[in-house]
């Protein structure tokens, strides 16, 4: 048995901090790489646009983070974005009210997430199968309603409505003329989600369920409803993402909107240090993961790669991130054994 010396303590503390917040170092390294590659073409507005372009996927990634911490997954987030976004356009055109549209988007997302949650938490169906099915169902409904009822090629907000311009300007607005408002929304959502998971009893139950479901049951935690609730929250966050998308773009194409967003959200979660096995990780890392993944996209564009190879590079990065998640804990265990 070895004793910890005074000299070893600062080193171990530093190692622990670096291990727990490695996502910050990853973000800084990727950002520096982007600044070097982009060179003189980099502007302050361009850097701030990282927050703007990360907002939609980043918001839904926080929900994905919750589901993964509980040991689940949600493959339907992109399709939810398309369905909620498309139906929100219909609501806006009928009401001419961004406020009503906002609450409708949150409610619609909540309902769709509840369907996932009830099937997974109460009916005990596998999360992968349930959300794979609803991924197909939600997008199919969005496309069918567009073609059969709306009878247009795209969900498009009516530009002649009096609230259209204020709503659209909301998505383009920059605080102090520099910081995108949608980026601030992303950060606020991040603060709320971090507080929820670190400073509330509910947050502790989420980690308990993902870490050891049987122990959580013995501790008196209602595991079923915890699972249901995280999918409800994920759905509501997808609704918020849909509202943000509308404010930024003013239209929804259900055939393309949200495609591969489930992969991008998972990538943000994994790069942010949340374990795919559940029960481990910090939601703060999801924010940095979303920003990092968006910067990677910009690096690929700056280097002039063919757009068709884009997802190959992103997919490879995701595999590397998961590999690192697996290899680092095993290395730590080996080092501890050697010390002992």
Secondary structure topology:
Blueprint: H1 8-20, H2 22-38, H3 44-69, H4 77-95, H5 98-122, H6 127-150, E1 155-156, H7 164-172, E2 174-175, E3 179-180, H8 181-198, H9 201-211, H10 213-218, H11 223-249, E4 251-252, H12 261-271, H13 284-302, H14 310-339
Antiparallel strand pairs: 1-4, 2-3
How would you describe this protein?
- The chain is mainly alpha-helical and 340 residues long.
- The chain has one domain (43-325): Orthogonal Bundle (ABC transporter involved in vitamin B12 uptake, BtuC), CATH 1.10.3470.
- It is 75% helix and 2% strand.
- It has helices at residues 8-20, 22-38, 44-69, 77-95, 98-122, 127-150, 164-172, 181-198, 201-211, 213-218, 223-249, 261-271, 284-302, 310-339, and strands at residues 155-156, 174-175, 179-180, 251-252.
- Helix 3 crosses helix 13 (284-302).
- The protein starts with 7 loop residues before the first helix and ends with a helix.
- The model has no long low-confidence stretch (mean pLDDT 89).
Total number of strands = 4
Order of strands, widest sheet: 1-4
Distance between the termini: 6 Å
Give unreliable regions as ranges.
none
CATH class: Mainly Alpha
Shape: globular
What profile does the largest beta sheet have? Answer: 2 strands, antiparallel
- How many helices? The count is 14
CATH architecture: Orthogonal Bundle
CATH topology, which one?
ABC transporter involved in vitamin B12 uptake, BtuC
Fraction of residues in helix: over 70%
Structural class: mainly alpha
């Amino acid at each position: 048995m070895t004793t910890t010396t005074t000299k070893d303590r600062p080193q171990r503390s530093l190692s622990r901090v670096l291990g727990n917040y490695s996502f910050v170092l990853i973000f800084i390294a990727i950002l520096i790489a982007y600044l070097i590659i982009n060179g003189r073409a980099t502007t302050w507005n361009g850097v701030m646009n990282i927050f703007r372009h990360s907002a939609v996927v980043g918001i839904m990634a926080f929900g994905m983070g919750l589901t993964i911490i509980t040991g689940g997954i949600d493959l339907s987030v992109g399709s939810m974005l398309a369905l909620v976004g498309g139906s929100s356009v219909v609501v806006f055109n009928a009401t001419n009210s961004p406020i009503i549209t906002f609450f409708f988007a949150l409610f619609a997302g909540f309902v769709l997430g509840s369907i996932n949650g009830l099937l997974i938490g109460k009916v005990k169906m596998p999360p992968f199968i349930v959300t794979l099915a609803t991924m197909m169902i939600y997008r199919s409904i969005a496309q069918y309603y567009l073609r059969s009822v709306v009878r247009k090629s795209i969900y498009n907000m009516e530009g002649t409505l009096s609230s259209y311009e204020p709503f659209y300007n909301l998505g383009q607005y920059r605080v102090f003329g520099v910081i995108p408002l949608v980026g601030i929304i992303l950060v606020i959502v991040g603060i709320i989600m971090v507080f929820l998971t670190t400073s509330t009893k509910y947050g502790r139950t989420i980690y308990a369920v993902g870490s050891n479901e049987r122990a959580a049951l013995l501790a008196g935690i209602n595991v079923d409803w915890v699972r249901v609730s995280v999918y409800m929250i994920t759905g509501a966050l997808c609704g918020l993402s849909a509202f943000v998308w509308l404010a930024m773009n003013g239209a929804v194409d259900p055939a393309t909107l949200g495609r591969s967003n489930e992969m991008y959200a998972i990538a943000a979660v994994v790069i942010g240090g949340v374990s795919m096995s559940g029960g481990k990780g910090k939601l703060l890392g999801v924010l940095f993961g979303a920003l990092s993944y968006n910067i990677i996209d910009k690096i690929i564009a700056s280097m002039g790669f063919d757009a068709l190879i884009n997802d190959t590079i992103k997919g490879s990065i995701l595999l590397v991130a998961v590999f690192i998640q697996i290899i680092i804990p095993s290395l730590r265990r080996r080092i501890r054994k050697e010390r002992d």
